[in-house]
Design goal:
The complex is a heterodimer of chains A (160) and B (64). Chain A is α+β, with helices and mostly antiparallel strands and 160 residues long. Chain A is built from 2 helices and 9 strands, in the order βββββαβαβββ. In chain A, strands 1, 2, 3, 4, 5, 6, 7, 8 and 9 form a 9-stranded mixed β-sheet that branches. Chain A is globular and about 40 Å long. Chain B has one domain. Chain B is extended, with a radius of gyration of 20 Å. The chains are: A alpha+beta (160), B mainly alpha (64).
Chain lengths: 160, 64
Amino acid sequence: MNQPKYLYKSEPLCKHFEFISEGVKGKIRKMVEYTETDAEGIYNLGFGDYDEKTKTIDDINVTNNGDSQKVLATVASTIYSFIKKYPNATIFATGSTKARTRLYRMGISNNLEEITKDFEVLGFQTDNEEWENFVIGKEYAAFLITKKQNNEIRQDTRTK
Amino acid sequence: MKSDKIQELNKSKTPIVAFDKELEKLQNVVLFPEKLEMANQFIKKYGLPKEYYEQIARQKEEKK
């Protein structure tokens, strides 16, 4: 992706990533984590701020450090590293709050052109309780991201 | 030459990933347990695209 992004660190399993956001509120340590869910091959995307004082991670609040585009581009780029390591994995993402889900939606929307070159992106619509191809401007409760050539999910209508 | 390299890095989809010994300690740790639980509940309640289940069934069939 051509957008500016932060340099990040990882570990050999490529399930944990860390980077430092630098903005109006100073330096904030960000953590990204991919954890397998009860559904085989589906990995939950966890993302939040590491609080140096409490040694805990906050995935509720939106930080407003003035660099959200760069942060989201960085999180999006960790998907490439993760999928490179686990090419058959599908990433599940939803926000802890509606604001966080909107943030994810914004991140996907802003990077959709690039992301869809390599990935299939689905959104879950709560109105009709269906998964569908991600459409910019539509509200979704959750997202699924998977590498294109490994995904056989290609239909427009998606039901469980 | 050097600036070409920087340009190339800026355009790359994945930034250079540095491995961190400290992060290795997290390999068996779930940092977002509530979020994971939320994801499990969501999938349990709403399910995944039907093609996912078909794919899993096919993979299991192939393993037999």
